[in-house]
Amino acid sequence: MRKSRQIFRKILLAVMVTLIPSLSGAQQRTDAKLAQTGMKFLSVGMNARQAALGDAFTAADGYSASLFYNPAGMARLDGNADFSLGSVNWIADIKQYHMSLAMKAGEYADYGTIEATILANNSQGFLDIGVIKPNAYAVGLGYARALTDKFSVGGNVKLVRQDLGNGVTQATYSGPAGAVTGASLDGQNKNALDVIAFDFGLLYRTGYKSLTLGMAVRNFAREVKYQKESFQLPLAFRLGVSMNVFDLTGFDREKQALLLTVDAEHPRDFPEQVKVGLEYVFMDAIAARVGYVGPADEHSLSYGLGFQYQHFAVDYAYTPFGIFNYVQRFSVRMWF
Q1: What is the pLDDT of residue 68?
Q2: pLDDT tier, 104 (very low <50, low <70, confident <90, very high otherwise)
């Protein structure tokens, strides 16, 4: 018992050393931007349950959707297989979809239709040259393994593609001088990129109650570029801790649970963030969730509900998003 307490104290000290500098540094540099990244759809939380927890899911496990957070979380599924799919109504009418099945996962972003224009010396100041339909997707294959009853590792390799449509490199204008009425496109270039990216992580069950520690690295890849400037994918390092708070109380843990998750994240293109999630589950059937992310430009709090019956669950998340109104997520999960 004494040895367990010593281990627990060391773990708490390690977590505090990690989280406190991240939180204080984030508060001091809320408007700082550290570097440019592209293919930002990879940073959007996919699953409704995890999004409602502020995406603080690095130290939780048992889901195929862990591929989007910490691949090591697949090492201990609730059943022999786990399947999840859902959609995200993102800002600016962007739609994103996800699907995960045990060790395989993919996500897709539909940016809708965008009117393509070029500058012109006419009353409007531009000419319509058609429409473009940007899109992006990531398809991956992951693997996780429990090395011991406490320690799990996992990884994921994925193909990421983003197509921003064709760009005009040369145009010949027609019409009277000073009043352009049309244009022919003499040169176009394709703005599409493919890149291989990697995610990997680990989970450690401390042995003290349900306390679990996690670490993950997401979107590790080479630099890519469309025309002139190169950029990296949204690389992120995460350290997390999770625990059923009712383990420390006299509440009946067979009928209810209160999961607390805390993540410290170091993204490449934003100051350090702290993410906190709280989930109350009653009778393994109804769940209420709230999450916090800070600092963030337009959003901080998220809310969610979940309903579960035997081996089927439906989740919903709602995130107020400042000037962009709100973001909604829907997910369905099955396991057997």
Answers
A1: 86
A2: very low
Helix (H, G, I), strand (E, B) or coil at 14: helix
Residue 32 has pLDDT above 60, yes or no: no
**Complete domains list, the chain, with CATH:** 2-335 (2.40.160.40)
Sequence-separated (6 or more) residues with CB below 8 Å from residue 202: 70, 72, 151, 152, 153, 154, 214, 215, 216
134/41 Cα distance (integer angstroms): 12
**Cα Rg, the chain, nearest whole Å:** 23
Q: Are 64 and 142 within 8 A, CB to CB?
A: no
- At 268, list the tokens: 């490449």
Long-range interactions of 124-127: CB distance < 8 A, separation 24+? 127/180, 127/182, 127/183
- Give the CA-trace dihedral at 147, 107, 294, 236, to 10 degrees: 50
pLDDT tens readout for residues 47-61:
899 999 999 999 988
Q: To 5 degrees, how large is the angle CA 139–CA 140–CA 144?
A: 160
* pLDDT digit string, tens, across residues 55-84: 999 998 877 888 888 989 988 887 778 899
Mean pLDDT of the 114-131 span: 75
Q: Which two tokens stand for residue 332?
A: 């369905």
Cβ–Cβ under 8 Å, residues 44 and 312: no
Is-contact 204 151, C-beta < 8 A?
Answer: yes
- Residue 22 is classified by DSSP as H
Higher pLDDT, 243 or 90: 243
Q: Which two tokens stand for residue 248?
A: 């420390």
Which amino acid is present at 55? D
CB-hemisphere CA count at 13 Å for 103?
Answer: 10
pLDDT at 36: 72
> Which residues are paired to 160 by β-bridges?
138, 195
215 or 120, which is more confident: 215
Q: Which residues of 238-259 are buried (b: 16+ CB within 10 A; e: fewer)?
A: bbbbbbbebeeeeeeeeeebbb
